[in-house]
Design a protein that fits this description.
Length: 139
């Protein structure tokens, strides 16, 4: 069952979005329970899914040996689904049982391509999140 627009609105990334915008995104979003130790994405593999943390602790490890942990509702993983070459840059592992929202990368990408105003809002939010994490995973 897809996530509700209300759930999306409760996530900081989508808090400034209109009801109409949330209703365009919500049908793509599926909640998923994760188990401790579960690998959600592997570095170098084709990026197929964009993840938003609802609860739980996750680690993203990078090729350079660095890693970050994500714990907050609204943290994102798998943004490589939207950026060429569309391969995960890190490996994502669940450190605890938790829950994420998933968006199929291809469908999310098509939505962004089809609506320039929505695309701008989404990419600005993602870029802001990425910029805040950049010092942690660059070589």
């Amino acid at each position: 069952m897809p996530a509700s627009p209300e759930l999306l609105k409760s996530i900081e990334m989508f808090s400034a979005f209109t009801q109409e915008e949330l209703e365009k995104i919500a049908p793509l979003v599926q909640p998923m329970k994760v188990m401790e130790g579960e690998i959600l994405a592997k570095r170098g593999q084709r990026a197929r899914t964009f993840f938003i943390v609802i609860k739980g602790d996750f680690m993203i490890s990078f090729e350079n040996g660095k890693a970050i942990t994500l714990h907050n509702k609204g943290d994102i993983m798998g943004w490589s689904t939207l950026i060429a070459p569309f391969e995960y840059r890190g490996t994502v592992v669940a450190l605890t049982n938790g829950e994420v929202l998933t968006l199929p990368g291809q469908e999310f990408y098509l939505l962004i391509q089809s609506d320039s105003a929505l695309s701008s809002k989404i990419m600005n939010e993602i870029n802001s999140i990425i910029a805040s994490r950049t010092p942690y995973h660059e070589a």
